[in-house]
Amino acid sequence: MRQWLVAGAVIESPTGLLLVRNRRRDGSFDWSPPGGVIDHGESLLEGLTREVEEETGLIVSAWSQKLYEIEAHAPDMGWLLRVEAWKAEAWSGELCCADPDGIVDEIEWVPHHHCEGRLEGVARWVAEPIVDWLSAQWTDERTYRYQINGAYPNDLVVTRI
Hints:
- The structure is a single chain.
- This protein has three helices and ten strands.
- It is of the alpha+beta class.
- The chain has a single domain (2-160), classed as Nucleoside Triphosphate Pyrophosphohydrolase, CATH 3.90.79.
- The strands form two sheets. The chain has a six-stranded mixed β-sheet, sandwiched between helices. Strands 2, 3, 4 and 8 form a four-stranded antiparallel β-sheet that branches.
- The radius of gyration is 15 Å and the shape is globular.
């Protein structure tokens, strides 16, 4: 069973929520908050700070709180994913797309009322928590758990548990 830890950043400005466009291996694109896999030996917030800077050019100097955690289990594909999403409190820098992994190719401040549409078609375990948070802006930490059945992207059945 492959397991990995991912961190996501919720960064808001007066113009909206920061989203990045990701180029997938099959040539498709989707949008998500910035973030990525935490490297061995990094703390979660160190890794998240690094990922945000790599993907967006912004340097986060303070994280306010963990907003939500996601656990997604895909036994047919042999993986278990855990995601922590943290809210940025303070940052500096200018937006600059220089992702060393070559995945992120666009960055945009998206007005809140456009985020749900921008996230349409994204994996449920990515889109649902951020859309929920945008509508409620809770202050307590939430947990989202998903069971993903199936082995092929077009045949997946995703159930929130």
